[in-house]
Amino acid sequence: MQINLNGVMVPKEQAVVSVFDHGLLYGDGVFEGIRIYGGNIFKLGEHIDRLYDSAKAIMLTIPISKKQMIDEHVKAAKANNLMDGYIRTVITRGVGDLGLDPKNCKGGTTYFIIADKVSLYPAEYYENGLSITTVAIRRNMGETLDPRIKSLNYLNNILAKIEANNHGSLEAVMINQAGYVAEATGDNICIVKDGVLLTPDRASGALDGITRNTVMDLAVEMGIKTVEKMMTRYDLYTADECFLTGTAAELIPVVKVDSRVIGDGKPGVMMKKLKDAYHSITKTIGVKVQ
Ligand code: PXG
């Protein structure tokens, strides 16, 4: 396997970064998770836009243009003959010294792009649905670390995941300080109620998910009414359908929230339609590797 490290393709074993890199020392950096379907890097432009927005929010200057960054992604996929899989892009503040001041990172940013396979939730959960649990840890507040920044500091989400695991659940429902539903640890949450597709608004503490937005757009095209609003756990418990969306997980049904059975306890009909629609576009919208 070859890794794109600062624009140079190097063998996996040689793709190493300094222990003085502030991405490692302080979680000072941003990342993206992208999928490639049949040689098409799905919605690469949107991922690159989000990457640059995350970087801007933390005042990290990416040394190459968006167009060059797109080319670097294509290069990484091509070098590994990756037609179906997953691309992980990481940009850090770079090498500094032991002191968190970003001014110490004089050598500029470090970036790397890994093009590899992705591991999903086991297939049975796609067929039968997930059971998810609300956790005590709250989603980061926008005033401390805006959840729309896809930063290298994922401890908030990791702590939520640990708590869910401790409860025997594969995934957590994260709520914000005000008690409204934000998202899962690496996925957005959607519900269906009376034929309407609903998802928490971004201000509730959700990542501006590309899968979420794609699904909402597809729903509109299919004539389904969509609403973004503040949602409580009550909305989840009383939903007809519930599912998670994310680049890695795609669309995955949820059949239980905090031990409440959702709808008839089976993956929802609307979710299945949206999932089919989603898979019908994954090979067309994006940037082709060849
Ligand atoms: N919320 C959070 C906190 C995320 O990190 C999503 C929602 C879904 O967003 P997209 O744009 O992917 O629809 C994410 C994305 C991983 C992994 O390795 C995580 C994500 C994406 C890909 C891989 O766990 N998170």
Mean pLDDT: 96
CATH topology title of the largest domain: D-amino Acid Aminotransferase, Chain A, domain 2
SSE class = alpha+beta
Q: Main beta sheet, described?
A: 9 strands, mixed
Low-confidence stretches: none
Please report the number of helical segments: 8
Helix content: 25-40%
The strand count comes to: 16
Our measurement of the CA-to-CA distance between the termini, rounded to an integer number of angstroms, reads 18 Å
Order of helices and strands: EEHEEHHEEHEHEEEEHEHEEEHE
The set of bound ligands, ions and cofactors reads: 3-[O-phosphonopyridoxyl]--amino-benzoic acid
Please tell me the CATH architecture of the largest domain by its name: Alpha-Beta Barrel
Approximately what portion of the residues adopt beta-strand conformation? Answer: 25-35%
Number of domains: 2
Return Rg in Å: 19 Å
CATH class of the largest domain: Alpha Beta
Which overall shape is indicated by the principal axes computed on the Cα atoms?
globular
CATH homology group of the largest domain: D-amino Acid Aminotransferase, subunit A, domain 2
